[in-house]
Amino acid sequence: MSRTVRVVGTAILTAAALAYLAWKIDLSTALDVLADTELGWFALSAAIMVLTVPVLAARWQRLLRAHGIEERVPWLTRAYFVAYAAGQVLPTALGGDAVRVVETARRHVGRAAAITGTVVLERGLGGAATVLLGAIAFVLAIGRYDVSAYLWLEGVFVFGTILLAFLFFARSARPLLRGAQPALRRIRLDRPLRAFYESVHHFRGQPRLLLGVALLTLAVQAVRVLAIWAAAEAVGIELSVLAYYVMGPLLFLVMLVPFTLNGIAVREAFFVSFLGSLDVEAEQAFAAGFLFFLVTVTMALPGAAVLAWEGMRGGTRPRVEHG
Predict the structure, then answer these.
(1) What is the pLDDT of residues 299-312, one digit of tens each?
(2) Angle between helices 148-169 and 241-254 (to 10 degrees)
């Protein structure tokens, strides 16, 4: 994807989201709602997101170890936080992933391909876990919430995940993938998709590891949905937690759209649209979305502090592996 296309796409999507917000909310009322934020609920939302990071680092450690790459959980946790800091200025969470790959590859010279594969596999497992949560919520919410358009969108993601699982796991899909390679190369997706494909097949001989990592990912995503619920509770939105298990997976997937800068405006517009369908006032929904943005900023603070400290000390030297 070219830089020009990405910049233009980001500008168009952000402008559309801002226009939607300007149409739906009264800014002064929204500010009043934010002024009455219950800080305990906000702190809980931030704590949920921050405290799950070491768990994700331990998951990554297991995938790296399967490639013969040894790294400590504290350093991998640090890498995650630095990636979150980078994600404040890079397009979507995928920009932070690239930072993780680069930093880790500097410590393990010559292992960039394997490291990239584990990060892409992490992202794939995260997407699959998110869709699975959405599928469960899809079934439980039918007839209980009037969010039919979102439920069917959730269904589309479920179908898409099943299709992707077939493409990447089934040997019979290899001719289809080879046929699509020229088109993928033109839009610069051939390398990340190849890395994901090779990573998956590397782990086919370790099904217990892959299953364990997938279940851990599902658990983390399920816990992180509670951070959205807590952010909404902070501004007085009282809905069943189940509503957020319908909303959360869609929000996480929306945040991966490559035409956003840290989800600015798009995230808040999604909150207003989804929660509005559940009769939540637009100003309250906007405030919840803004608080969740502040949660992502909170997650970036440790990484920013690490970068500042290491910058003053002259950074860290790469570690060259032998053998």
Answers:
(1) 989 998 988 888 77
(2) 60
Residue 323 — very low, low, confident or very high, per pLDDT cuts 50/70/90? very low
Letter string b/e over residues 24-60, b meaning 16 or more CB atoms within 10 A of that residue's CB? bbeeeebeebbeebeeebbebbbebbbebbebbbebb
Exposed, middle or buried by CB within 10 Å (0-12, 13-18, 19+), for 291?
buried
Q: Residue for token digits 């089934």?
A: 170
Angle made by CA atoms 137, 284, 9, in degrees to the nearest 5: 75
Instruction: Please give the single-letter amino acid code of residue 271.
Output: F
- The first and second tokens of residue 156, run together, are 């589309």
Token match 């190369």: residue?
185
Strand partners, 91: 261
**Pairwise CA distance, residues 32 & 122, whole Å:** 40
Find the distance separating the first CA and the last CA of the chain, reported in whole Å: 37
CB-based contact 292:286 (threshold 8 Å) = no
Q: How far apart are CA 23 and CA 95, in angstroms?
A: 31
As a whole number of angstroms, the distance between CA 309 and CA 127 comes to 33
| H helix runs in the chain, sequence order | 3-24, 27-35, 39-51, 53-66, 73-86, 92-107, 112-141, 148-169, 174-186, 190-202, 207-234, 241-254, 266-276, 282-313
Is the separation of the CB atoms in 225 and 244 below 8 Å? yes
Nearest to 47 by CA among 301, 298, 288, 302: 298
What pTM was estimated for this model as a whole? 0.81
Quick one: average pLDDT of 119-127? Answer: 81
Rounded CA separation 172/163 (Å): 13
